[in-house]
Amino acid sequence: MDIRNNIGREGSASDTEPNSSQGGYQFSSPVSEDGLRVHQLISACPPLDENSIYCNILQCDHFANTSVKVEKEGQLVAFISGYIPPANPDVLFIWQVAVSSVARGQGLGGKMLDFLVDSPTCKSVRYLHTTVTPGNDASAKLFASFAKRRQADTNKAVAYDRDRHFSGRHDSEVRFIIGPFR
To answer: What is the mean pLDDT of the chain?
Structure first.
């Protein structure tokens, strides 16, 4: 058995529900081979920050349990990367949400968040954390809608400051803390 293909697989949503279909969209955990496609999707979704292809491969491999891909007719149309911080096992941190232009307006962002939070891997998760730049209205609305569906409070504060953390090269990142829920 090649253990490289098993990193992060135990208890994932894909173990109990390998492929959830909603309206012709297939929801599943990513695999390392999805890394390049994820990179291409993120590149096509401004204002998202691009990571290296290698980083996207690692997200799909090491964080498969807390990430989700959505395909339609074999094409990758949406992706969320996330992880559970080791020091906070009741938190799911969402790193990026990407939805291709051809799939926008279908509610996929919210469905992907629900897919992750309702997965066996996230059974102890009571909070969702993320960061959003002030001008990213679509993301702010996505997370506000998630909080409303989960009947959870949302707290916001600057987590990474434009000048202090980014030396003026990137907008500030505002941390959204949603929860507790369940």
So the answer is: 89
The pLDDT tens digits of the residues spanning 121-168 come to 999 999 999 999 998 999 999 999 999 999 999 999 999 999 999 999
Instruction: Give the model's confidence band at 182: pLDDT under 50 very low, under 70 low, under 90 confident, else very high.
Output: low
Length of the chain (residues): 182
Single-letter code of the amino acid located at 166: F
| Measured CA angle at 92 (ends 29, 58), to 5 deg | 45
Write the secondary structure of the chain as one string of H (helix), E (strand) and C (coil). CCHHHHCCCCCCHHHHCCCEEECCEEEECCCHHHHHHHHHHHHCCCCCCCCCHHHHHHHHHHCHHHCEEEEECCEEEEEEEEECCCCCCCEEEEEEEEECHHHCCCCHHHHHHHHHHCCHHHCCCCEEEEEECCCCHHHHHHHHHHHHHCCCCEEEEEEECCCCCCCCCCCCEEEEEECCCC
Dist. CA 65–CA 8, nearest whole Å: 6
Residue 7 has pLDDT above 90, yes or no: no
pTM of the model: 0.86
Task: Look at the block and give the residue holding tokens 């679509």.
Answer: 138
